[in-house]
């Protein structure tokens, strides 16, 4: 089911049982007075009237339908259902993670279980508009979930037969497994960092290649196991010690690329005296291991309580580390305390300052960690409550940036399923019973478990209809760090590692003595693609006419000229940044384009007499469900870089047309020779990315700029 308002356009797709999108499916709608259908360049319906319609796709004798309801308002009240997907059986959602792929697609990854006893839940990848990308069986109880930059997903699972496994799923249906131990996090460059058991059981941080390259593997700090043969457990003698491995927590990737892991480095003491029962003690210790981008590492030790001995001793179970928003860190860990009155659990936090020094003092936040979420001015700690005094509820604790508590409150009798920071230093919390709490009443109308913001004033989660997107407040605050502690690429910059650059620039002289300004070039040449239509390579059109781009969301279609048109259908781009003030335009390729990526065009004056026009792209061959199409894209792409191909020649002719049309002379020698002809892979990716994204003064709609 899909809901939309009049004037809105929604894209749709059909997948076969191998998660492929057939290109020869036949599409139709039964009520064209409510929605109209277009199939080029993508399958989309536009709401033109109020009412209901059914969209049907037929392929090889199979038929799929979806119901569309169109409302006459220009927006929805909070809680209005936008689309829904039935869950498998009578199942429930246990996890939702979000990520942007290198193709610029924002995906929601959902774990669905058929019931509490389901040992093989289902993982579904869904676009923000409700289109399903792929679906796979997981094979165990999910402990951690993340999407990856290639459109796949990674899960940490516990097998029904025992044992923990790290399992990766590719968008093409392939999968991999590695022995599991601790949690994982995905670095912005695509490396998956995972805690695994190394030699003699020692923990190590491993940089796993999931398709974008591997990272280093480094040993994590060890604790100590001491055996003594005399004295007392408080003052033993005759002791010998060996290194010992204790538990490690989940890695986190910080904004600068540093990977941090909390790990227990306690000393266990065993007193062995003949004829007397063995006695045990623990000197609890916790360290934070940091792997820096340059390969160096450091260790910060946290000060914990003193020695505890049997029958009253404590085990340390590290949780994770997150940035505190002021250059420091907040460290979370659990304790399991065995004593005369049974076993007690505790969740604790402490701070590390911006200089890497541990801050004295710790605080208890509940009975067991649930999550740590960074706000603008403090941290939300969500902890399980096992203590009978709080009736099994969870606790919400606001921590100041040094890890100390600001307030503690019991917030619901139902389990917390998600907690998400929003702008204005707020938090949106959803519960298993569908209750949603936020800064105002609009959030309470959404009725979602596992609520996650998906953009355009919409939220996704579990509702009575199944996996559902509803309208809601759009005041989400983009995280300032890659939230790798959850192993999740949510709202972070899509990795630019798999993309290549190509770059053209021309420097013109005489602008100071003429009427030719950057604004004039932008208006008359950049947004009209006049240089393309004057070339020997292609023609550009906008709705069948000469282009005249005037905003974002506008489509320009390219038709290659003979002989280049042989075997190449028309393809399109969409404007995603329109900035007349900076004389800049950015377009993103649409499905059907042989390339996947972004290109910018910009004109500016470095001095009063010089005018520079440049265009640069981050792109790569477009993927395809059909291998022969993707191979053709790769061959054309590589040939364009090795030889002077169509793309490089097109933008050379584009620049020369502007030079000739304005009558300005070319600067000789130019600051960087050869840029009129174009350079493939010459310009730094960061420079091109900065020009694609522009000034980051507000959340940008360009996926690769979400950083």
Sheet of most strands: 9 strands, antiparallel
Percentage of helical residues? Answer: under 10%
Number of strands: 52
CATH architecture of the domain at 500-705: 2-Layer Sandwich
Question: What gross morphology would you assign?
Answer: globular
Mean pLDDT: 79
Class based on secondary structure composition and strand pairing: mainly beta
CATH structural fold name of the domain at 500-705: Alpha-D-Glucose-1,6-Bisphosphate, Chain A, domain 4
Strand content: over 45%
Number of helices: 6
Distance between the termini: 33 Å
Compute the gyration radius: what is it?
29 Å
The top level CATH class name of the domain at 500-705: Alpha Beta
CATH superfamily descriptor of the domain at 500-705: START domain
Unreliable spans are 386-393, 476-495, 624-634
What is the topological layout?
Elements: E1 2-5, E2 9-11, E3 26-29, E4 35-38, E5 44-47, E6 51-59, E7 62-71, E8 81-85, E9 92-100, E10 106-113, E11 122-127, E12 132-137, E13 141-147, E14 153-158, E15 164-169, E16 175-179, E17 184-186, E18 192-197, E19 203-208, E20 217-219, E21 223-231, E22 236-244, E23 252-253, E24 259-264, E25 267-273, E26 276-283, E27 286-291, E28 297-302, E29 308-309, E30 313-323, E31 329-339, E32 342-352, E33 363-366, E34 368-374, E35 379-384, E36 394-399, E37 405-412, E38 416-422, E39 426-431, E40 436-437, H1 441-444, E41 449-455, E42 458-463, E43 466-471, E44 500-509, H2 518-526, H3 530-533, E45 538-541, E46 555-560, E47 571-579, E48 584-589, E49 595-607, E50 610-621, H4 627-642, H5 646-662, E51 665-666, E52 679-680, H6 685-693
Parallel strand pairs: 1-7, 21-25
Antiparallel strand pairs: 2-5, 3-6, 4-5, 6-7, 8-43, 9-10, 10-11, 11-12, 13-14, 14-15, 15-16, 17-18, 18-19, 19-20, 21-22, 23-24, 24-27, 25-26, 26-29, 27-28, 30-31, 31-32, 32-33, 34-35, 35-36, 36-37, 38-39, 39-40, 41-42, 42-43, 44-50, 44-51, 44-52, 45-46, 46-47, 47-48, 48-49, 49-50
């Amino acid at each position: 089911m899909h809901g939309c308002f009049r004037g809105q356009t929604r894209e749709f797709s059909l997948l076969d049982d191998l998660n492929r999108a057939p290109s020869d499916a036949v599409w139709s709608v039964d009520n064209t007075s409510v929605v109209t259908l277009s199939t080029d360049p993508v399958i989309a319906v536009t709401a033109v009237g109020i009412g209901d319609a059914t969209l049907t796709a037929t392929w090889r004798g199979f038929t799929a339908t979806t119901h569309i309801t169109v409302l006459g308002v220009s927006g929805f009240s909070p809680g209005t259902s936008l689309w829904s997907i039935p869950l498998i059986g009578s199942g429930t959602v246990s996890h939702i993670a979000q990520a942007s792929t290198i193709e610029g697609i924002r995906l929601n990854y959902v774990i669905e279980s058929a019931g509490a006893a389901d040992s093989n839940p289902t993982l579904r990848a869904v676009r923000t508009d409700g289109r399903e990308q792929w679906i796979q069986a997981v094979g165990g109880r999910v402990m951690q979930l993340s999407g990856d930059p290639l459109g796949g997903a990674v899960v940490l699972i516990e097998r029904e037969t025992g044992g923990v496994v790290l399992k990766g799923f590719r968008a093409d249906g392939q999968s991999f497994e590695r022995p599991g131990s601790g949690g994982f996090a995905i670095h912005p460059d695509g490396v998956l960092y995972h805690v695994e058991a190394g030699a003699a059981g020692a923990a190590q941080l491993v940089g796993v290649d999931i398709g974008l390259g591997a990272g280093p593997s480094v040993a994590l700090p060890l604790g100590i196991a001491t055996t003594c043969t005399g004295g007392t457990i408080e003052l033993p003698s005759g002791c010998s010690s060996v290194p010992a491995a204790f538990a490690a927590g989940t890695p986190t990737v910080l904004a600068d690329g540093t990977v941090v892991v909390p790990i227990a480095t306690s000393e266990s003491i065993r007193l062995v005296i003949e004829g007397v029962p063995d006695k045990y003690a623990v000197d609890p210790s916790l360290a934070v291991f940091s792997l820096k981008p340059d390969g160096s590492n450091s260790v910060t030790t946290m000060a914990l309580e003193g020695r505890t001995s049997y029958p009253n001793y404590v085990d340390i179970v590290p949780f994770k580390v997150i940035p505190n928003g002021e250059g420091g860190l907040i460290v979370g860990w659990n304790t399991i305390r065995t004593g005369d009155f049974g076993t007690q659990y505790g969740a604790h936090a402490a701070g590390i300052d911006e200089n890497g020094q541990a801050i004295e003092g710790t605080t208890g936040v509940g009975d067991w960690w649930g999550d740590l979420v960074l706000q603008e001015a403090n941290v939300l700690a969500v902890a399980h409550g096992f203590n009978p005094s709080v009736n099994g509820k969870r606790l919400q604790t606001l921590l100041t940036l040094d890890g100390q508590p600001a307030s503690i409150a019991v917030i619901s009798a139902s389990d917390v399923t998600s907690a998400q920071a929003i702008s204005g230093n707020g938090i949106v919390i959803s519960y298993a019973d569908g209750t949603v709490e936020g800064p105002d009443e609009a959030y309470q109308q959404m009725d979602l478990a596992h609520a996650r913001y998906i953009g355009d004033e919409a939220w996704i989660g579990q509702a009575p209809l199944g996996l559902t997107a509803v309208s809601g407040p759009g005041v989400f605050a983009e995280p300032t760090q890659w939230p790798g502690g959850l192993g999740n690429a949510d709202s972070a910059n899509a990795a630019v590692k798999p993309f290549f650059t190509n770059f053209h620039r021309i420097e013109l002289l005489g602008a100071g003595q003429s009427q030719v300004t950057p604004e004039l070039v932008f208006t008359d040449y950049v947004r009209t693609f006049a240089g393309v239509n004057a070339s020997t390579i292609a023609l550009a059109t906008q709705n069948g006419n000469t282009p005249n781009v005037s905003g974002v969301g506008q489509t320009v279609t390219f038709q290659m000229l003979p002989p280049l048109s042989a075997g190449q259908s028309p393809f399109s781009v969409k404007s995603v940044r329109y900035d007349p003030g900076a004389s800049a335009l950015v377009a993103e390729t649409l499905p059907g384009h042989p390339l996947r990526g972004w290109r910018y065009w910009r004109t500016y004056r470095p001095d009063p007499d010089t005018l520079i026009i440049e265009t640069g792209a981050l792109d790569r061959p477009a993927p395809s469900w059909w291998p022969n199409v993707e191979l053709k894209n790769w061959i054309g792409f590589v040939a364009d870089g090795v030889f002077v191909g169509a793309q490089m020649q097109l933008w050379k002719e584009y620049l020369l047309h502007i030079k000739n049309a304005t009558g300005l002379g070319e600067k000789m020698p130019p600051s960087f020779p050869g840029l009129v002809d174009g350079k493939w892979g010459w310009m730094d990716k960061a420079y091109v990315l900065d020009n694609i994204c522009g000034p980051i003064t507000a959340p940008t709609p360009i996926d690769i700029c979400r950083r």
